[in-house]
Amino acid sequence: MAKQYAWSNTERERDRLARQGEQLRPATDKLFRAAGIGPGARVLDCGSGGGDVAIIVADLVGSSGEVLGIDRDPDNVEAASRRVADLGLSHVRFETGDISVPPEGPFDAIVGRLVLMYQPDLEAVLSALADRLVAGGVMAFLEFEHMSSAGVIMSPQSPSIEQLSRWMTAGFLATGVPERVASRLPSVLRSIGLVPQPPYEVSGLVYHGADVVDHVSTLLRGLSGVLTTNGIASEDELDIDVFAERVRVECGPDPVLMVSPNLAVWAKKP
Questions:
Q1: Signal peptide span per the entry (predicted)?
Q2: How many CB atoms sit inside 10 A of residue 239's CB?
Q3: Residue 178 has pLDDT above 90, yes or no
Q4: Mean pLDDT, to the nearest integer, of 188-204?
């Protein structure tokens, strides 16, 4: 895990991730279906957070399958456990743990979404996970391509959102998040003995209108602790209400914001 997790650990942050998860659900479901995850499979969900990915997998494997989600944060584990209990998903459970020391398998599939970017030693983590796969098992990950050189893609341009993008990059780098994890995945998976299965799918998130202001304000709120702790921005600069109003003025009533791409990759263990 990165030396410090960049985002806050709050119910508000879990709500943000749940909303983001709904947007990413079609791409995630498509990836897992392409990887052949189906009824009866035993699946490990890495960095399960609020349980969004585990719930997708639960639908694919059905009641004859099993889903184990692990997350380093006990609050996330508790929240995800309550959520699946409310949904009646008795074949899904969660444990506190670190994916660099995965639980005993074997698993038919190991999956995750936006989790490998927080691992400082990608090869070591994936190798440890691969040891828990059955022969013929699959790994499937959807990962964000974090690039310090990448600017935001939006219309009209907003100096405040561009500043937020720079703060995010600085916050990621300060907490040990490496660059270009997604595009490295196929080669790393091959290096640990798995066989990547192209073609790979690219997806992204697009926000429009008032959703732009809501999204960037929520991002700023979630990152504020890391930004102040690392001296990247002051508390005055991070005033959410002031920031949101500046974005409204700069963007007008009909902005569009596109977020850097996510890459969906799966590989098979011989």
A1: none
A2: 14
A3: no
A4: 96
In this prediction, what percent of the chain has a pLDDT beyond 70? 94
Measure the N-to-C terminal CA separation of the chain; round to a whole number of Å: 28
Q: Domain check: are 1 and 68 in the same one?
A: yes
Rg (CA), the chain: 19
pLDDT confidence band for 7 (50 / 70 / 90):
low
d(CA 139, CA 102): 14
What is the reported pLDDT for 196? 98
Tell me, yes or no, whether 9 and 130 share the same domain.
Answer: yes
Q: Is 1 helix (H, G, I), strand (E, B) or coil?
A: coil
Statement to judge: residues 130 and 104 lie in one domain: yes
**Strands 262-268 vs 133-144: parallel, antiparallel or unpaired:** antiparallel
Q: Which amino acid is at 262?
A: N
The number of distinct structural domains making up the chain is: 2
Rounded to 10°, the helix 74-87/52-61 angle is: 40
Structural domain range at position 161: 148-176+210-254
What residue type is 15 in one-letter code? D
Q: What is the pLDDT of residue 194?
A: 99
Lowest mean pLDDT across 57-66, 131-140, 164-173:
164-173
